[in-house]
Specification:
3-stranded parallel beta sheet; globular; 467 residues; 20 helices
């Protein structure tokens, strides 16, 4: 059974204050401003197939840990790029998962799994090799019930808003189905242009063709490309989008002249673009995305510092998002200088920066966010979306940036059942951090209560776009 005081300080005074703070916000609605749940899940509202398909196969946090211990992705049923054979027996996969459940001890994945099993699926017994199939059948029976349909769980989780992540060329058909239905759940798209700005990607020309088709702009040069991006942003806004999201290795920003940008674009079309071209084009497009955000009000989110697909063998066989992305060292003071000087003082611009490089929190990001009105710090993200990671984030940013130059928690998840677990962890960690501040007489209790509401629901700048 989950302890109600979990993640709180062992000091009784701090724990008491933390519980008081947490109890006032624990039942507040969930705002999920950035995630990767497929909108199709809620558009179709079909029953989840089985426990393995629900909890294991789509969750790279789980599969990467198992893979690190020598368990093949084939044995976990992960689909291959070429359609070659993988394990199809989902009970067998579940048994393998249960045998290795101990691997998740002390990890955020273990915390989320236990929460989902007990609080969502009402499985209170520990998962192990002996009872694996018994638990599998128990969950399978529940998943056939209307009580466990995606929309029903959405409402049970008390989700006020769920933002998905959608390619720039996406038709947003699933979002339109949700809007046209009689269901009241709020699910909105987020504009993600990575595939069309990464000119060195093997699939880039195909992505440009898709963008051309979606935007109604025949793209033959850089000027056409920018117009197509602007058209798609307008379309996303019509369907409810309030933010963009861009993942880059480096946050380097630099505005090219139209001639320079067009020359690079032309080389990319011909297949002769260089590595330096690719870096400059992304740097230029970050400036362009900032300009567009000043004009159309979409909040700009930037996620630097991940070396994607580090394990080439896994990427070549299984494709994207299989747990192979690794954090990189990043630099912000110089790299964001041009963008922040041009747009950082603009009252129409909202710019949220995340990082996988914790060393930059206190050295660069907190000082930048503590100065430029447009810039806010994203929460502890991805590898740092954990009890200790969130705590370190508050410790390293609060004294320089304060609380109000940060944004609300986001779960960044593909695993639908983990959403309430992740938000619960964030609320508990923030309650504990504020309880320590109260116990040390840094802030007053009344202020801590007000701040907990802001950290939970108030600081979601992604969904208060500039007008």
């Amino acid at each position: 059974m989950l302890n109600k005081f979990r993640f709180f300080d062992s000091n009784s005074e701090v724990r008491k204050i933390a519980w008081d703070l947490y109890s006032k916000v624990k039942d507040l609605p969930i705002i999920s401003p950035h995630g990767h749940v497929e909108p199709k899940l809620l558009a179709e509202n079909l029953p989840f197939p089985d426990p393995t398909e629900l909890l294991i196969i789509p969750d790279h946090y789980i599969t990467r840990m198992l893979y690190s211990q020598g368990i093949s992705l084939e044995s976990l049923g992960i689909p291959t790029v070429d359609g070659s054979s993988v394990e199809q027996d989902h009970k067998k996969i579940w048994q393998l998962f249960a045998q290795n459940f101990h691997l998740f001890s002390g990890t955020p994945s273990g915390v989320w799994l236990k929460h989902a099993l007990e609080k969502v699926l009402d499985v209170t017994k520990p998962v192990n090799e002996k009872n694996a199939l018994e638990i599998y059948e128990e969950i399978s029976t529940k998943l056939k019930s209307s009580d466990f349909l995606p929309r029903t769980l959405f409402e049970k989780f008390n989700i006020e808003l769920l933002a998905t992540t959608d390619a720039a060329s996406d038709s947003l058909e699933d979002h339109k189905k949700i809007l046209d239905s009689d269901w009241s759940g709020k699910v909105i798209p987020t504009f993600r242009p990575d595939a069309v700005v990464n000119i060195l990607s093997d699939n880039w020309k195909n992505e440009i063709d898709k963008l051309s088709s979606a935007s109604g702009v025949e793209i033959s040069n850089y000027k056409d490309f920018i117009l197509a991006i602007e058209n798609q942003r307008k379309y996303f806004i019509e369907i409810g989008a309030t933010a963009t999201d861009q993942g880059v290795q480096s946050p380097y920003t630099h505005k090219l002249s139209e001639g320079e940008a067009d020359a690079i674009f032309t080389r990319a079309i011909k297949g002769t673009a260089t590595i330096e071209d690719g870096k400059l084009f992304i740097a230029n497009m970050l400036m362009e995305m900032a300009r567009m955000s000043c004009e159309d009000g979409l909040v700009m989110q930037l996620h630097p510092g991940s070396m994607r697909n580090h394990n080439s063998k896994v990427f070549n066989k299984f494709g994207l998002d299989k747990g192979c992305d690794i954090p990189m060292q990043t630099e912000y003071t110089k790299n964001l200088h041009e963008l922040l000087n041009k747009y950082g003082n603009n009252s129409n611009f909202k710019f949220i920066v995340f990082t996988l490089d914790e060393t930059s929190y206190s050295r660069e990001l907190a000082p930048l966010a503590g100065h430029y009105p447009a810039m806010k710090l994203g929460p502890a993200w991805w590898f740092h979306d954990s009890i200790q990671g969130m705590t370190r984030y508050r410790q390293m940013t609060t004294e320089t940036a304060g609380f109000y130059n940060t944004v609300g928690f986001n779960d960044d998840t593909r695993a639908f059942l983990s959403i309430p677990a992740r938000h619960d962890v964030a609320r508990r960690v923030d309650s504990n951090f504020l309880a320590l501040q109260v116990s040390q007489h840094i802030i007053e209790m009344e202020y801590a209560h007000n701040l907990m509401h802001e950290l939970t629901n108030g600081l979601n700048y992604e969904h208060t776009p500039s007008q």
